[in-house]
Amino acid sequence: MTLSFTRAAALAVACSVSLVGGTLLASCSSGGASKADQQPAPVVLEVGEGFSNPIGYYESTPRFSWQLASDGAGHYQSAYQIQVAASAEGLDRETLWDSGKVVSAQTSWIRYGGAPFDSRQQAVWRVRTWDENGQMSRWSEVQSIELGLLSNDDWQGQWIGHPDTELSQQPSVQVLATPQYLRTEFALESAIKKARLYITAKGLFKPFINGQQVAPDDVMTPGWTPYDERIETLTYDVTSLLKTGDNVLAASLAGGWYSGRVADLMALDHQLPPRLLAQLEVTFSNGERQIIGSDASWKASQQGPIQFASTYDGERYEQRLEMAGWSDSNFDDSDWQQAVVEPILPTIKLAPKRHAPIRITQAIPAIEVWQPSEGVAVFDLGQNMVGVPRLQIPVRADQQVTIRYAEALHKGEFYTDNYRSAKVTDHYIPSVTGTADYTPTFTYRGFRYVEISGFDASQKPSQEWVTGLVQHSDFEIRASFESSHSKLNKLADNIVWGLRGNFYDIPLDCPQRDERLGWTGDAQVFVTPSMYMADVYGFWSAWLQSVREEQGDDGKIPLYIPFVEWINFASSGWGDAVTIIPWQLYQLTGDDTILRDNYAMMKGWLDYHQSQMKDDRSTMMTFGDWLQPYPVAEGKKANRGDTEFDLISTAFYAHSLQLTINAAEVLGYQQDIAPMKQTLSKLKGLVRNTFYDQELKPKTGVETQTSYLLPLAFDLFNPAVQEVAFAHLLEQLAKADNHLRTGFLGTPLLIQVLHERGRDDLVYDLLFKESYPSWFYSVNNGATTTWERWNSYTLKDGFNPQGMNSLNHYAYGTVSRYFYEGILGIQPLQPGFKEILIAPKFGQQLDQASGDYQTPHGDVAVSWQRTGRAVELSVTVPKNTQATIELPQLQRTSLQVNGEAVVNENQLQGLKPGTYRVVGQLQPEQFLSN
């Protein structure tokens, strides 16, 4: 329908109104000019870190972002106006906030200026803009935002669980490891307008209403946070699942990360009782409300089909215990027990989840099946993935089916030793003969192969028996890099699969063995490439909140977040994630909120660094250049590499100081800058004089590539000394036949330093190496993800006997940053890509490359093609930005842009939004040959 309103400003407004999820939305246009004269409306409207029309949002003062329409006549925004109201009608009658016309080119992270939102509050918002010529756009489509429960005081429900799991009953590990089933019946007597389910768990939950799953694709909710500090809550629109009359709210509940073990800490396995907290709020058409909360009236049972659930060890499912209709009405729960209740503690904050939960995102069919022995079938999914399988298998009554998993075959044999103590095994016990349809619920694993035994042996195994259900935190995968080289494309694909598998509510190190922790060192090297490949700003921002909550009073940052008592020291290069990640995110987004939120943590980490200084060096513990190939050291010490540990710690202290200075300058904290600069200057001198002799060789320890990469990447030497250090680095590369000799810390710095110093020929050489150690070495040995070690596995010999062989580790996937910043040449000249540098690097190994990156302003796209020395480049610059193209490899006299000869550099600078076609000839001496 169409409604008309009149404003005091006498602007004509037309709104197309619709009801979505209980929220009135409208698409409106207004202004003094006619529609024909107006510019297209802004698009891609989002709040916070990329949320569109969120329900259960977490910020009481949200940030608004949008993009200019690509088909508008104007190139730039000169002003904007944001309106926020309680409803679509209110946008033209009574707003909650009207920014008025604000002269600004800013299109992202604009903070709401009205009174802070309350829990449950619903609002709508829209924006219009003016271009550089003063032409006004149409109003955007109206977007909605709805807050979750922001305070513990908003909860009327209580924590509930099965009485046998109370610690006062001294429950066994088996009792605590057995999932609980909880339900309540209630009546709704009036017509329902909207309904919201607010829910969380100490553990993992799966909610149902009237026999239907509330969120079929959501898994392992609510996720993993520092449970003693904060537990995330989820909000679901369940309006369509309810009915007038009798209803049932139910949930299954398991221990997950809360009460199950973490890593190999078997003594902590299933020692805490899982608990559920739920609050269903129903609003009726007459305006009245009804709240159904978790309390002592709920019923509980542990006699359901899942009789064991463990994140690391798998599930046991007994078909005879299936309870038909248990989550629906007309179910007899008379033999169920009354739930026990526990109060909500004010010391543990309940807060809306601030990034999307883990979800099933795709299904992968098996590509091959074989029987290595009688009664055993092995299925190959063709891809090392993370999630669970869906099994549709023939079974015989009372004959147990055992399902095991593996990442790779070891010399042709099914192999699980690299899972270490994680059993990663499911058991299904059928009660009837026929076809069993089973999908594990409260566990996950990393695997490519599935082994099934105990099935009906009279049936021939078929590929259709097994389908892999891929799970990861639900964000958009945007990876677009593609080239003319099949192995490079495979490497790029492998890196994306590593991202999928390890972004599992937190940034894991690996998803399969008895570890699966949020290691900070792995995270800091991969943050920037992950942003180029996926919409993960919200994911990183949420994890950083957990890092802040785990920081010690002395500034110490644990090795992994969330922290459990396992390895209790801090490590340089790992803890420095708290300065590196916020700064890198700021560079890519332009959102200073990420710096503001984490600045105190950054300074606290500097204090901890300072506490580790002794005798002109940092003595902080470090994992070193983890898993550097060909170490001189032997045994377990070899894992930490050969680079001087104190050098690593001192250099990272200086780097963190510089990044914190950068943050202080952005935030305007002038009082902090001078003392930090003074400390940094002193540290630079210490690095030069304490660790290097007059010839700039290491005074102690082994001369390594990383020993020169650290001061070069972190700018710890003056220019003249840098030249000497770089020459030594090149010598080290030459000694290794231009192979890398770097681990987790050194590898990203190696690519960075060579690229920044104009030696992209060496980057290409390293990237396209095929022998060990190299990225293509894994590709040549059948990798479908990236590995923990450079030589974790070979097709001939199977798994490396050294141990610690995860075949899904993302740290070495950091090279993908070069795909976007080097090969395509996309880099921010200003934070958030307001100004963009396009400086692609061409090498003989590639004839073509293309890709794009979705900046806060829109997509910047680059593609190039080389035929001999002739290069053709296409660049798309998004609205509200400008770009500079740098092509030092091409002969200036040969350059043409959109058909016009380039006669001076200005033609390639300050480029307006649009698409540019550049052609030219490579200079022979600049050709990046192998």
UniProtKB/TrEMBL annotation:
The enzyme's main class, written as a single word, is hydrolase
PROSITE patterns tied to this protein: PROKAR_LIPOPROTEIN
Q: Name all Bacterial alpha-L-rhamnosidase N-terminal domain ranges.
A: 191-362
Residue spans crossing the bilayer: none
SUPFAM superfamilies attached here? Six-hairpin glycosidases
Q: What are the Alpha-L-rhamnosidase concanavalin-like domain coordinates in residue numbering? A: 373-470
The UniProt entry's coiled-coil ranges are none
Q: Which residues form the Alpha-L-rhamnosidase C-terminal domain?
A: 825-898
**Which UniProt keyword terms apply here?**
Hydrolase, Signal
The protein's matches in InterPro entries, at most eight in alphabetical order, are given as: 6-hairpin_glycosidase_sf (IPR008928), 6hp_glycosidase-like_sf (IPR012341), Alpha_rhamnosid (IPR016007), Bac_rhamnosid6H (IPR035396), Bac_rhamnosid_C (IPR035398), Bac_rhamnosid_N (IPR013737), Ig-like_fold (IPR013783), Rhamnosid_concanavalin (IPR008902)
Which EC numbers does the record give? Answer: 3.2.1.40
Tell me one GO biological process term. carbohydrate metabolic process
Q: Which residues form the Alpha-L-rhamnosidase six-hairpin glycosidase domain?
A: 479-822
Q: State if Signal is listed as a keyword.
A: yes
The name under which this protein is listed is alpha-L-rhamnosidase
